[in-house]
């Protein structure tokens, strides 16, 4: 560039600047768009991380926990708040990256001189290609997102997902990890989960279908079963885990070999299995006190409330 003017003053040679910009304008513009996209994504990421960390820190303070692992000894709701918050933060980071990347691509194409009609056609083509080629990934992503938002399951829950059942070890946006009773770790794609049976939310019910001889005194047996269950529910060790009075629902089935009586006890979800084992042991001892010899279960078919065996 050189100086010019009516009196040789210090004015800028706009012609030379225009030539220089014509040669380097596009690369500089593209570089500025890329830098702006990276800076914008970094800012959004920092904001999302601070919000997530703020929520997690608040939950830890409320639970008086030093780290996230310590929250396992706190109420399950607090663990789930941490889990959902972090999962949502991960989703927002991913969405921010995609949105900023798409805007940056549009701006770069505009700088390169691609017209609006071409951009629309390209976007339509890419959208159709993504819809065909990434249907499974999109389905996994959306289903995982809904499961997180709706709190259908959480880490530590005992669930039945159809093909896999066990304890949830990880809930991701695309894959949920479930470890079964044999120790096998199942990786279940969220898009393949059509139903979730969660045995760890709210309350649970221990159901015991006890077979007794056909000639047994039904009233005496029912009263003995109820006394045993009531005694257990009032014991200090179980007082806070049994949340309602045990009930005898009556005779469930009758056959030539035996009569089946149903005993139920409502417990906290986390105490169902332990309470069930203890109740069965007490039922056995209680029936022994009556001198009762129980029939074989091989020929007895019991049907539940839903009609299933």
UniProtKB/TrEMBL annotation:
User: What does the entry list under GO cellular component?
Assistant: plasma membrane
**Could you tell me the keywords of this UniProt record?**
Cell membrane, Membrane, Transmembrane, Transmembrane helix
Q: What is this protein called?
A: Small conductance mechanosensitive channel
One MF term in the entry's GO annotations: mechanosensitive monoatomic ion channel activity
Please give, as recorded in its UniProt entry, the membrane topology of this protein: Multi-pass membrane protein
Q: Which residues cross the membrane?
A: 20-44, 90-113, 119-138
- Please state every residue range assigned to the domain named Mechanosensitive ion channel MscS: 137-197
Per its UniProt entry, which superkingdom is the organism in? Bacteria
What SUPFAM superfamilies does the entry give?
A: Mechanosensitive channel protein MscS (YggB), C-terminal domain, Sm-like ribonucleoproteins
Q: Where is the Mechanosensitive ion channel MscS C-terminal domain?
A: 207-288
Q: Which family does it belong to?
A: Belongs to the MscS (TC 1.A.23) family.
Species per Swiss-Prot/TrEMBL record: Agrococcus baldri
**Which compartments is it annotated to reside in?**
Cell membrane
Q: Which InterPro entries match?
A: LSM_dom_sf, MS_channel_C, MscS_beta-dom_sf, MscS_channel_2nd, MscS_channel_C_sf, YbiO_bact
